[in-house]
Amino acid sequence: MRTLSELTFSNTYSELPSVFGTQIKPQPLTDPFLVSVNPKVCTLLELDLDEASTDYFVDLFTGNDELHGFSPIAMKYTGHQFGQYNPDLGDGRGLLMGEVLTSQGEKWDIHLKGSGTTPYSRQGDGRAVLRSSIREYLGSAAMHGLGIRTTHALAVLSSTTPVYREQVERGTTLIRVAESHLRFGHFEYLFYTNRHAELKLLADYLIRHHFPDLLQQESDSTPNRYAIMFHQIVSLTAEMIADWQSVGFAHGVMNTDNMSVLGLTFDYGPYGFLDDYNPGFICNHSDYSGRYAFNQQPSIALWNLSALGYALSPLIDKSLIDEALNTYQTQLQLHYSKRMRNKLGLTEKHDQDSDLYSEMFRLLANQGVDYTVFFRTLSTIPKEELASSIPHFEGLFSCTTTLSQWLQHYATRLELESINDQERLGQMQQSNPKYILRNYLAQQAIVLAEQGDFSMVDKLLLVLTDPYSEHPEYEDYAALPPQWGKELEVSCSS
Question: 2 forms bridges with which residues in the sheet?
């Protein structure tokens, strides 16, 4: 582990031509202080955890000091927002500070969110507030704990700087860490402004830093490396969406400027995890049409990939773009089926499995059953006890007749498995989390934090980074949510 000054830095993105962004320094926050730091992200960066307690760390990431090696840049991109192309996007409240190189050869972007105005702020103040920063901080930790590819958040830092939203709030910065901050919208920007040379340059940059194996794959008899790159993006996106659907995660704002080319869950805003199973769940109060509802995410991801493919058309023949897009549905179903088999403790495929799944989802939807608690409960019941397991589901079902029928169907299906029951339950408990970040828990932590008490943020961080373990001292965080907790409204400003 190393201090900040001992880390190895590079600034490969800032070495690209000026059309890719604007170099600008973060604007200072007043009286800054540390809210929380994620030890696991420190480990990723090989950064000594004690560094976060220093004045230098706090000052550096609130714009009050500088570090030799950082070269802050506000990235320029565009994108489709709710289906409409918007040319006026970019890092309006964030800066790519630089890149950390680890001893293992990994490169991590360090991105500061809430750092002040940039040329892309669009009349905004460029600031973040405590509530939105805590939501992204905990949301990214939760997804990583669930084994889903995501950006990370190193720390949350706040201040006495006033920020005006619906009310006066504290100016806050979030230190985001990611393999890359390249979005679908970066390529759309260069395509729609007819910068085809720069489009190729960016594709070459992406391949060199994130798909280096592709440099060796191109030949006269194979598709070009840009087509293979697009195939990779399609595959990574399909896997990400399958992961989201399996854990009941709704992103809320799947605009193309919020889509990572590396299949990372990106830009946490009005996201939400399912409480009661509702396939049409809309987590974003601003999504009036339900474009980004939970059950629409697979098709929206394909729509976004099509928009990216169109932006890459100067580099890739249309037939190859279509060929890659045509693999999406198959890959999505493959990954999703694997995730769901693991959740039900199934290791083999059988023809009747689709009926088993359909019955289960219909049962959950018709009775509004809590998605996470149902699967976690199921993962604790031995096969020989399934027939008499109704009491385990107390409080989840209003009518247990159809549940009893489904459990009998499930028990019959398990007879076809060769895996022993202890292994099955172990697999299920490692596939069905006990803890997820419910909106009401995040809101409780935010209310306390706004009063100066950050203890719940750290407690949630602990269970969310290891959500499959029991954590008996935090049992309350795994309980069914109160009714008011299911009715919280979250919008893009959250």
Answer: 47
Query: 3-state DSSP call for residue 176?
Result: strand
Q: How many CA atoms lie within 13 A of 341 on its CB side?
A: 16
Distance of alpha carbon 418 from alpha carbon 429, whole angstroms: 18
Instruction: Give the pLDDT score at 490.
Output: 86
Residue 493: what pLDDT?
58
Q: Any catalytic annotation for residue 257?
A: yes
- Could you tell me where the beta strands, DSSP code E, fall in 77-129? 79-81, 84-86, 94-101, 107-113, 128-129
463, two tokens = 């269970």
Instruction: Label residue 218 by pLDDT band (50, 70, 90).
Output: low
SS3 content of the chain, % helix, strand, coil (to 5): 45, 15, 35
Q: Yes or no: say if 48 and 7 are a contact pair by the CB < 8 Å rule.
A: no
Examine the pLDDT at 492 and tell me if it is beyond 80: no
Which residue reads 């049962």 in tokens? Answer: 363
Cα–Cα distance for residue pair 137/153, rounded to 1 Å: 5
Give whole-number Cα distances, 184 to 91, 180, 284, 320, 345, in Å: 14, 12, 21, 18, 36
CA neighbor of 176 nearest in space, from 234, 121, 132, 124: 132
pLDDT category at 396 given cuts 50, 70, 90 is very high
How confident is the model over 151-180, as a mean pLDDT? Answer: 97
Sign of the CA dihedral running 244, 489, 295, 389 = positive
Model pLDDT, residue 494: 46
Task: Please compute the mean of the pLDDT values over residues 327-333 and round it to a whole number.
Answer: 98
The pair of structure tokens assigned to 389 is 């397991």
**pLDDT of residue 306 exceeding 90:** yes
What is the C-alpha separation between 311 and 188, in angstroms, rounded? 5
In tens, the pLDDT along 5-23 reads: 999 999 999 999 999 999 9
Q: Which residues touch 177 (CB under 8 Å, ≥6 apart)?
A: 41, 44, 45, 108, 109, 110, 111, 151, 152, 153, 154
Q: Of 91, 257, 267, 275, which is the active-site residue?
A: 257
pLDDT in tens, 443-483: 999 999 999 999 999 999 999 999 999 999 999 999 999 99
Strands 94-101 and 107-113 turn out to be antiparallel
Q: What is the largest CA-CA distance in the chain?
A: 67
The β-bridge partners of 111 are: 96, 176
Contact status, residue 74 vs residue 120, Cβ threshold 8 Å: yes
DSSP letters spanning 198-266: HHHHHHHHHHHHH-GGGGGT--TTS--HHHHHHHHHHHHHHHHHHHHHHHTEE-S---GGG-BTT--B-
